[in-house]
Amino acid sequence: MILLDGKKVSNDIKNEITEEVKKMKAKGEKVPHLAAIIVGNDGASLTYVASKVKACERVGFESTMIRMSNTTSEIELLDKIEELNLNDEIDGFIIQLPLPKQIDTQKVLMAVDPDKDVDGFHPMNFGKMALDMSTFIPATPFGILELLDRYNVETKGKHTVVIGRSHIVGRPMSILMGRKGFPGNSTVTITHSHTKNITQITSQADIIISALGVPNFLKAEMVKDDVVIIDVGITRVADESSPKGYVITGDVDFENVSKKASFITPVPGGVGPMTIAMLLKNTLLARELRHK
Ligand code: GUN
Q: What region holds the Tetrahydrofolate dehydrogenase/cyclohydrolase catalytic domain (predicted)?
């Protein structure tokens, strides 16, 4: 079994980006600037955004975090987005999801300038991705592709099963794994809450990408020998013995599934750090595109 070490690979990517930033500085160019909007006080979302800001500092990017209250109206958020769209200092920005109930997420994502949409969530960028056009690929799927690429995991002709159809991970992942090229050329099955007899499907999978958010959902009996496992789950499970009062738990019963797997991502330290590294990569791309 080979561990797909997202912590190490994301560090390599951050080092590569740091070198790019140094070159920009040496040429007297402005460094990339990422902004993140966070609405409300969700603990996990605040932690993720703080990690994104910290990662910016680490590679030499500028960053701006914009906090808005839980009672923010849709109009107020749309105004803030327009401000960032027009602000020439900002190369790319994200709106951390989920948003409070009073806000229509799709409407908000459609208000982002597609050239600054480093999350790749705008329908124009999502459409471009589906049509194999060059664009911002959503950071988590992008990170998974990068892991498969750097570990040379064969995907051509393999049966890839995606668990979950979220707009952020499952849906784009199912498109990307079926695209021409590497990683890609897989035969893809996408499963979700209405899928019947999921074990029958997962037990035929060469590659399983689980983005369900149910701790320890995928058991050893549900997979075949030598399966490749990508665990996108990051659920906080209460644990009084841990200093934070919770532990981050993946969708996969790692202890038992890892005994059968050829490659597997750990949680934490697998897909999570890759998401942040690829957001930085998209921000670098946004910076380059805007100053071409
Ligand atoms: N919430 C969970 N994952 C993500 C992500 O990749 N981007 C944003 N903006 N919000 C998220």
A: 4-119
Q: pLDDT tens digits, residue range 171-198?
A: 999 999 999 999 999 999 999 999 999 9
* Residue with CA nearest ligand 1 atom 9: 96
Rounded to two decimals, the pTM is 0.97
Q: Which pLDDT value is given to residue 291?
A: 81
Rg (CA), the chain: 19
In a domain, residue 282? The reply is: no
Q: 151 and 60 in one domain?
A: no
Nearest CA residue ID for atom 1, ligand 1:
97
Q: How confident is the model at residue 277 (pLDDT cuts 50, 70, 90)?
A: very high
Structural domain of residue 198, as residue ranges?
139-273
Ligand 1: centre distance to CA 204 (Å):
30
Residue 52 designated active-site: yes
Could you write out the three-class secondary structure of 54-83?
HHHHHHCCEEEEEEECCCCCHHHHHHHHHH
- Residue 218 Cβ < 6 Å to ligand 1: no
198 is an annotated ligand-binding site residue: no
8 Å CB contact between 266 and 2: no
Is the same domain home to 89 and 159? no
Q: Is 67 annotated as a binding residue?
A: no
**Sign, Cα dihedral of 58, 282, 17, 265:** positive
The CATH number given to whatever domain includes residue 54 is 3.40.50.10860
Q: Could you say which DSSP state residue 186 is in?
A: -
Does residue 160 line the site of ligand 1, with CB under 6 A? no
